[in-house]
Write a structure and sequence with these properties.
Elements lengths: L8 E2 L5 H6 L6 E2 L10 H22 L9 H6 L7
Antiparallel strand pairs: 1-2
Length: about 80
């Protein structure tokens, strides 16, 4: 049984670890290796890495709307979103 993209996302968590890391309003994500939900600072690092990827991808390809190939959907969508 394989996980679907939506299975990699869980509702935000308000545990002490997530509260301390400042991620209580962000959806939880699964660790791709262990399959466990990320909490606290590991979750924060996941969101920071995603943002760094988006910035690097944007810099590599240029201005929004420049590519008709669906690049915007690829870079800006979250797992579980259609597109």
């Amino acid at each position: 049984m394989s996980l679907q993209p939506k299975d990699h996302i869980a509702p935000p968590c308000s545990c002490p670890e997530c509260y301390q890391a400042g991620v209580t309003k962000l959806e939880q994500r699964r660790d791709p290796y262990s399959g466990k939900l990320l909490h606290g600072y590991p979750l924060r690092r996941w969101y920071e890495a995603r943002e760094q990827f988006r910035k690097a991808a944007r810099k590599a390809v240029g201005a929004p709307g420049r590519h008709g190939s669906g690049f915007e959907r690829l870079v800006n969508r979250d797992p579980g979103q259609e597109g």
